[in-house]
Every structure is written in structure tokens, then in C-alpha cells.
Design brief:
Number of helices: 2
Largest sheet: 8 strands, mixed
Radius of gyration: 30 Å
Strand order of the largest sheet: 21-37-36-35-28-39-26-25
Strand content: 35-45%
Structural class: mainly beta
Helix content: under 10%
Shape: elongated
Distance between the termini: 65 Å
């Protein structure tokens, strides 16, 4: 019992110094990573363990275990083979010997590196490499840190009167708990509160809000450290319309957003509430802006995919097999300007439910389209150059002006300095009055518009003018 107690004391001492440990007989030492290994959730982790001097480990017993779970090893090698009988179910099929570098000779060269694939949040912690020979034993420990980058912050704003705006910032999908910073230009602000919550997968969401001046230029930065933060910017200008007398609608706040999904509301800012709060401004109780609900994800939107066909005839367009472009052989009475003259609607019409379709805006030989309109319309007779394509006239769409800058045809117009998508996804929830646009390639939300749809609406397209790249309405692939 005395010898076993001495062995346990030595092992405990070695675990306090994971970079190396003194052997009993000097036959070999174990070298492990001296600094924690950090990997993203779902990636592969390589936890290095090597014999020094290099020698074959084929006749040794190698035991990798997590935390203090010595008797249930993540990986156990002895008698020339890997034994998985005592291996926890969570590690089956995920743990094996890897290679420290490309020149590693594996077990024959004393490389005992643990390769752990599809890393989970539960994998985080300390791992011990315990090596035993017939006359020697040695161990070293290394820490594994599992991280996950969350979404780009969503900044939104609500005018509450007296030249004050309630700004809300939220981001989700982080691990561990991220930091959130708010600033107005270069001035760091103290948020009203910072609220954290965990989803069913253990990932962390963060939300904060603050009442600021209507002339602020807000930034929200969220990240695990100061060097790797995701940033959203929101410029609050002077374009704040006063609240109409006797009206319950909130005035417009015009702002531009960088790297953030923008929620735009026609006739007023529109928010869905996830909680309630209050703040006292000038002696009056004002509603705090809680988290806005996250718009439909692309994966959810795709569930409502419908095949859209182009409807009607337009002499100013060439239409073939879902491909759409302007007819360069025509004389355009509106000149080079893009108007409703080159617009066309699709079918089926929409009067209820959820609908989703996709439009290709890029071809390998000709690149991205220079200009286009994609959205929905409730207008019936719109193929005239005099028609103003505004929400008040029954048009809601996202467009590009030739400079690869996406623009919403809101009143006033909102420009989104985001990368133009190669494939655009369009989602309509008629009952909720929501129209969302997605970048299909990176599965990100470009913008979401809230509107009051009345009557039947139709998919709406305009391929622009003088563009070699056609617009293609994509059909649904077989599932």
C-alpha cells in the first residue's frame, strides 16, 4: 500500500506541471503541450504527447483520460492494441492516435498524440497522457478549450421621443460566454444591462440595450476576446420623423448598418417582443426595447420552397427556361435608367401562408449581375416607365444599382453595404407581413422587411439593362 500511495502522490505532483514530469528510473519522459489547445466546436483536436528520447511505444501501455476519470479512459492502448471496452460511449468512434506533425513516425517513434474529432462542449477540460512500461511510468496533462463563434450582432433601434433612441444589440451561438461592448463613435458606453442565456445545446446568447441620443453613431462588438470580435455599426441621423398626433405608430429612424441583418419597417419601425422592461426618461415610463425575434433562418425558409414561373409577356425582355434578361434589340423609351418597363411578375400568386424561392445572380462566364430588382408586388398594371416602384404603390424589393450595393426600396430608401449575393433567397410570410432576403451561399440574412400585405401579391423581378449576366429563377431540386 505504501508503494501505491507513493505512486499516486507522484502522479498528482506531475499533473501540476503538464509540460513534463520526472520519471521513476530515467528510462523516458513524456512531453505534452505546455499551453491549452483551443478548437472550435465540431472541429478536430490534436493533443500532443511524445516520448523523450523518441522510442517505440508499441510495447508500452498508453492511457489517455479526461479529468480524473482514470478508470474510464478516452483511449487505452496495451498489449499492442487499442482496447475500447472501458471507453465512455461519448468517445466511441471519435478518439484515436494522431500525429504530432507530418514527420511523425507514430507509435514506433514515440508519438502518442490523441486525435479527437467532432469536438463537443463536454469535451472541454484537462486530458492526461499516462504511459507505463515494465519498470517506468510517466504522465503529463494538457487542457482542451472548446469555443464557438456566434452570429454577427443584430443592432436595432426604436425612437422613443425627445430626440432619444432605444438601441438594442443581440448575438447568439457563442461559447463560452462572450463579451459585449457598446460605443458611440469612440466613446465607450455602459449598457442598461447585459443579459446572457443558454440554448438547449449549451450555446450562449447575449443581449443588451441602451437609450442614446438620436445623433449617435453606435457600434456593438461581441467576441470571446478583444482581438476576435464581430462588429455591427448603426448610424442614427437626423432623419427622425416626429410621431403623428393621435397615432400609435413609431416614427422612422433612418440608419445604415454594416455586417448586420437589418430589420426595416414600412411606415414605422416594427419589433416583435421577447420580453418586457421599462426605463424612465424625463420622468415618464418608456418601454425598453427588448430582443427582436430572430428572423426565419434559411434552413427553415427552404421548407416552403415553391417553383416560380414567369407570368405574362414583355417585349422589352428575353425569357427562356427561367432565364431573364433585357432585350438589347429593343428601343427603350426610358433610356438607360432601370424602371418598371423591364419588370415582370411571377406565379403562383400569394394570398396566405409561407413561400420561398431562389434567384441566381451570377454566372461563371460573365460574373455577378450589375443591376437587378427582386421581391414581391401587389400592383397589377406596372409595366410602365411612369410607375414609381415604392411600397405605397405595392412594391417591396431588394435591388442592386450596379455598384454591388444592395438597396431596399423603402421610403426613404435604405442602402445595405453588404456583399452582393450570387444566389438570392426570398421568403414571404404573408400572414405576418414579413419579407426576408438571404445570401444562399453563406446562409446569412441580408434584410427583413415588415409590410401590410393586402390582396394577392406576386414574385417580382427586373433583370436591369445592358447586363451580360442573366437572372435565373431556380427550380427546386429533388429532395
Amino acid at each position: 500500500m505504501g508503494l501505491r500511495f507513493l505512486q499516486l502522490c507522484l502522479v498528482a505532483a506531475l499533473c501540476l506541471h503538464p509540460s513534463s514530469a520526472a520519471p521513476v528510473s530515467g528510462d523516458f519522459t513524456v512531453l505534452v503541450d505546455a499551453v491549452p489547445i483551443s478548437v472550435h466546436l465540431g472541429q478536430m483536436a490534436m493533443l500532443s504527447c511524445r516520448l523523450n528520447p523518441p522510442k517505440t511505444a508499441e510495447g508500452l501501455e498508453v492511457r489517455w483520460y479526461h479529468s480524473d476519470q482514470f478508470d474510464t479512459p478516452v483511449l487505452l492502448y496495451r498489449a499492442g492494441k487499442i482496447e475500447d471496452g472501458a471507453q465512455p460511449a461519448a468517445y466511441k468512434g471519435r478518439a484515436s492516435f494522431g500525429q504530432w506533425n507530418e514527420k511523425s513516425g507514430g507509435l514506433r517513434a514515440g508519438d502518442l498524440t490523441l486525435e479527437l474529432v467532432n469536438v463537443t462542449l463536454e469535451d472541454a477540460g484537462e486530458y492526461t497522457c499516462y504511459v507505463t512500461s515494465d519498470k517506468d511510468y510517466q504522465s503529463g496533462s494538457v487542457s482542451l478549450i472548446v469555443t464557438e463563434e456566434g452570429t454577427t450582432p443584430l443592432l436595432s433601434a426604436m425612437w422613443i421621443g425627445n430626440d432619444l433612441v432605444n438601441v438594442s444589440c443581440e448575438s447568439d451561438g457563442w461559447y463560452p460566454k462572450p463579451k459585449l461592448r457598446l460605443s458611440d463613435r469612440s466613446k465607450v458606453l455602459t449598457p442598461k444591462s447585459v443579459v446572457y442565456s443558454n440554448d438547449s445545446a449549451g450555446l450562449v446568447s447575449v443581449h443588451s440595450w441602451l437609450v442614446v441620443s438620436s445623433s449617435s453613431e453606435m457600434s456593438c462588438l461581441v467576441g470571446l476576446n478583444d482581438n476576435e470580435e464581430k462588429k455591427a455599426m448603426l448610424h442614427l441621423g437626423s432623419n427622425i420623423l416626429p410621431q403623428e398626433q393621435g397615432s400609435s405608430k413609431t416614427g422612422w429612424v433612418l440608419f445604415s448598418v454594416t455586417l448586420v441583418a437589418l430589420i426595416v419597417v414600412l411606415g414605422g419601425m416594427y419589433f416583435k417582443y421577447r420580453g418586457k422592461g421599462s426605463d424612465e426618461v424625463d420622468g415618464e415610463k418608456q418601454k425598453l426595447l427588448p430582443c427582436t425575434t430572430r428572423p426565419w433562418s434559411l434552413q427553415e425558409a427552404k421548407k416552403y420552397h415553391v417553383d416560380v414561373a414567369l407570368e405574362g409577356d414583355n417585349t422589352f425582355l428575353k425569357i427562356k427556361n427561367g432565364l431573364l434578361r433585357d432585350n438589347i434589340d429593343c428601343h427603350f423609351p426610358d433610356g438607360e435608367k432601370v424602371t418598371c418597363l423591364t419588370s415582370i411578375k411571377g406565379s403562383p400568386g400569394i394570398s396566405s401562408g409561407e413561400h420561398y424561392w431562389e434567384v441566381s445572380l451570377c454566372k461563371a462566364k460573365t460574373g455577378l449581375k450589375k443591376s437587378w430588382w427582386v421581391g414581391v408586388t401587389s400592383a397589377s398594371d406596372f409595366q410602365r416607365q411612369e410607375v414609381s416602384p415604392t411600397p405605397s404603390n405595392g412594391f417591396w424589393f431588394l435591388s442592386s444599382n450596379g455598384a454591388h450595393v444592395c438597396t431596399l426600396n423603402t421610403e426613404p430608401v435604405v442602402s445595405l453595404p453588404a456583399a452582393q449575393p450570387q444566389t438570392l433567397g426570398v421568403f414571404v410570410d404573408y400572414g405576418s407581413g414579413e419579407l426576408s432576403f438571404y445570401n444562399v451561399e453563406d446562409h446569412s440574412l441580408i434584410a427583413s422587411v415588415a409590410a401590410e400585405f393586402t390582396g394577392e401579391i406576386f414574385p417580382f423581378f427586373n433583370p436591369g439593362k445592358g447586363d451580360k449576366t442573366p437572372m435565373e429563377i431556380l427550380t427546386r431540386k429533388d429532395q
